[in-house]
Structures are given as structure tokens and as C-alpha cells.
Amino acid sequence: MIWLRHRFLFLLVLAGSLGATYLLWQHEKNSVAQVLRATLDFNLRETSSRIEQRLASYEQMLRGAQGLYAASDNVERRDLRAFVESLQTGSDFPGMRGIGVAPLVLLKDRSRHISELHRLGFPDYTIVPEGRRDVFAPIVQVEPTISPSWDAMGYDMYSDSVRRAAMERARDSGMAAISGKVSVPPQADRTPQGAFLMYMPLYQHDAVHNSPSTRRATLVGWTFVPLLMNELMASLYGENEAATKFRIYDGVGLTQQTLMYDSGHDDGRAPDGQQLSANEYIVVGGHTWTLVISAQDGFDARFGRDKSQLIAITGIVLSLLLAMLTWQLSTSRERAVVLATEMTGELRAMAATDFLTGLSNRRHFMAGMADELARLQRLDYNGSAVLMLDVDHFKQINDSYGHAVGDAVLKHLAHLMQGSLRKVDLIGRLGGEEFAMILNGTIGSAAQTFAERLRQTIADTPLMHNGQPIPVTVSIGITDMSVVDANAESALMRADEALYCAKAGGRNRVEAVTEGTKKLILSAELRPGSMA
Ligand SMILES: Nc1nc2c(ncn2[C@@H]2O[C@H](COP(=O)(O)OP(=O)(O)OP(=O)(O)O)[C@@H](O)[C@H]2O)c(=O)[nH]1
């Protein structure tokens, strides 16, 4: 039950600290995810803000061109060229393919328009694509002329629905308008990395155009800039490019057809929801783009300070240590009780044992003798014999061989005596070279025979010391202890009297005395003339 309680406490502490570790680990994971999310959002906002600023600068440029045409009703080709040259478009306007002009040409004015261009030095000029339409918006000039292969002269932008939508938006609003994804130049195949145009409407010189209807009535054409998304974005993209993938879609549909720009840094991770990404819609020139940023390999390591693994390992180790410490503390009381019990047992044994021979000491022997007498009195048995045994001339042994050998003799005798007794018998060392025994349930001649055999065994078994035998003899006094004895001491005194007789009788002998008659019974070794 106690150990169950300890185990429960151990498991409780372990589970509690592991639970706390899990919460910390989870919290760290969430914190890192929040930091990564915030970093990604920040990158996205910053990029979209840069795009808006860049497009605003193009819009500003077109406003300048618009102003050029508003200032005069007779702007010549060289005027636009001079204007564009004065802008010094270069690295400041990346992605731009020049500034162009497209007049509004009605069907009835088409021939006159073509003749005019022929007269201005473009003999091959015509409006493409061919076909009968009510309104045309052919490109008549792009400055600076960048490439002869880009033969956009005469291309009717009004014939393309994507361009036309932006042009009409610009016309009606009087503001800059951006087209959807187109090909630049117009004859090129549509490429996955798109291009777009920004239009600014041109109205009649000095005309009022403060409403959609007046704007439509006074429109004379458009000035525009074709823009390549790749080049535009290359100049905008920040330093986090390598760790993120950036895409721009035309409109809100995220398809390959609407993809305008792709940064191309793709680590191959599928957009399976595990990939961290963020979207933002921006409205530029009245047109919506969807910006998508997604984290790539290395983004976590670059921007996250993920200590969750360290927390997990440290937490588990500390949890185990704490649980083990709890176990140690909770079981220490039980272990102390066990230790105390063992020590008490040892002390008890020491208190009852003679340290030299390992036999019972006097006090313990006398207690055993008293118990035996009480048992006799209770059960009314015949009795038990009490023997007292003393080493003969032990002083001489000590004096001859030394005290250590004397001790060895005492141990030797204790061993011989123990070997002769039954388990039910008692033996003890009363002190010095004096021993006592109780032969349980054995009295009279049987006890005397035992004593005589013991005396003989001792006399026949010398202690071997350094290869030499040390002969040892003992004298034994014997008496019967019975219910008539008032106490154990009286029986022991009788045995002592018998021992005295054995000593006085010459030693190495057994003398017996019985209660009542006080008659001494001589041993087999009794010489003629002794007490009878
Ligand atoms: N080595 C050793 N000697 C002990 C011990 N206890 C008592 N003695 C010695 O035992 C001797 C007993 O001597 P005595 O009382 O004269 O008896 P004895 O020499 O045996 O002579 P008798 O008993 O008359 O035969 C003394 O010299 C004690 O010092 C012990 O534990 N070890």
C-alpha cells in the first residue's frame, strides 16, 4: 500500500512536470509560428508598398506626358521624344518599355490618319490587325525606340479586349488605368511572366472633361507605358528573396493563366497547407492584383528562433530528475525504518551474544534458563540438566602461549560444545573460561553420560597451534533442574558446587549433585576414595 502510494506520487510528479514541459514546448512552437507569420506578413506588406510606390512614379510620369498634350493642341513627335529624353528613363524606371502614344481614330478618319503617318516618314505604316472596326487606337509613337524587332507601330490596342478595358476605364475616370496581363510587344506569344500597360487619357486642348460623358466626348487618345513584370519586380525585391517565393496574379483567381510574376525560388514543397504563406490584394490603377508570398526552405532557420527542441529535452530530463528526487524523499522514511529495525536487531543480538565465542552471554543464558524453569513448572516435566564447565589451568595456557591463543582455545571449546548439543539445548559463556549448558528434558544418568562424553571429546581434541597440539581439559559440574527449584540461580549454584568438587577432585572430570540428597555422583573418572 505504501509502495503504491510512492509509485503514485512518482508518476504524479513525472506526469505533472512532463505536462508542464509539453505546455512550454507548445507555447514556444506557437511563439515561433507567430514570429514567422509576422515576418512573412511584413515582407508581403513591404513588397506591396514598394510596388504601389513604383507604379505611382510611372503614373506621375504619364501625368507629365498628359500635361504635354494638354498644354498644346499641336504636339509633334519630336516634342514627346524631347519629353522622354528629359526624363532620362533608365535604371530609375526598370521594366518600362518606353512611353507611347495612341490617338483615337474613328473609322471615317482612318484613311486620312494613315496618309498623315505616311507623310511623316512612315511609308509602310498601316493599322493592324486589319479589319473593319468603328474605332481604332493605333500606336503611332513609342519613345525611346528600343528595338527594331519590336514593331508595334500601327498596332490597334483597341482591338484587344484586355487593353481596351483599361483604356476605357482611363477614358471615363480621367485617371491612370492598368490593363490585365498582356504580351509586350503585342505580337509576342503570351509568356507566363506577364506584362501590362498603364494608360493615361488625353483630352482635347482646353476642353472641359469633368464627367464621364464630357470625357468621352473630348477624348483624343492615350499615352501609355508598357511594363514587364520580371524587370519591375527584380528592381523591387528585398533581401529576403532567397527564403521566400513571391507571385503576383492578375485579378483574384490564382491560376497559371493569371500568373503575372513568379520569383522562381521554389523549393518543391507542395502547397499542402503546411507551407506558410500569405496573400494580399492590391488595387493599382483601378486593377486588382493578388500578391502571394510563401516561405521556402531556410525561412524558419533564418527568421525563427526555435528553442522548442531544447525545451523538450531539458524538460524531460528535469522531469525525470524531479520524479526520482520525489521517489527518494518519499521512500526515505520507510528506508530509515527498515535500517533502524535492522540495527535494533543487530544491537539486540549483540546485547545477547558473547563477542568472542558467539555463544549467548551470561545475561541471555540466565534468561533462557529462567524460561526453561518456567516451562518445566508449567508442564510439570521431570526436568532438565544444568552443566557448568570450566577450563583446567587456563592461566597456564595464557601464560605459555599468550592471550590470543587463550582466546582461540575458548573459541575451539565453544565450537566443540555446540557440535555436541541438540538444537533444543542452551549454551552460554558465563564469563572468563566458564561455560554453562541446559540439556532440555534430559536428566540423571543420561545427562551425566552426555557430560562425560563431552569431557572426553574435549580431552581428545587438542587445539592445533603452529602445527603443535595444545591439550585442553575441562572440569564439569552437573545437576538436575526441576519444579522444586525456586529459581534458575539455585540450580546454577548446585551445578557450581559440583564443578567445585570436580576441580577439587583433580580436574578433567565430571561431578554431579542432586537436589534433596545433595549427593554427589562421581564420574567414570572418579578415583577411589572420592565422595560418594
Ligand atoms: N585469553 C583469555 N583469558 C581469559 C579470558 N577471561 C579470563 N581469562 C583468564 O583466565 C584465567 C583464569 O585463571 P584462574 O581463575 O586462575 O583459573 P585456571 O588457571 O583455569 O585454574 P583452574 O580453574 O583452577 O584450573 C586468568 O588468567 C584470566 O586472565 C579471556 O577472555 N581470554
Description:
With 532 residues, the protein is of the alpha+beta class. Residues 517-532 have low confidence and may be disordered. It contains 13 helices and 19 strands. 31% of the residues are buried. The structure holds guanosine-5'-triphosphate. The site of guanosine-5'-triphosphate (GTP) has 16 residues, from strand 12, helix 10 and helix 11. Guanosine-5'-triphosphate binds next to strand 12, helix 10 and helix 11.
| Alpha-carbon distance between the two ends | 69 Å
List the strand order in the largest sheet. 13-14-12-17-18-19
User: Rough shape?
Assistant: rod-shaped
Mean pLDDT metric: 86
Question: Any idea how many domains?
Answer: 3
Q: Main sheet?
A: 6 strands, mixed
CATH topology of the largest domain: Beta-Lactamase
Named at the architecture level, the CATH assignment of the largest domain is 2-Layer Sandwich
Radius of gyration: 61 Å
**Class per helix and strand makeup:** alpha+beta
Q: Which runs of at least 5 residues are low in confidence (pLDDT < 50)?
A: 517-532
**How many strands appear in the DSSP assignment?**
19
Query: Strand-residue fraction?
Result: 15-25%
The CATH H-level homologous superfamily of the largest domain: CHASE domain
Bound molecules: guanosine-5'-triphosphate
Approximately how much helix is present in the residues?
40-55%
How large is the count of helical segments? 13
CATH class of the largest domain: Alpha Beta
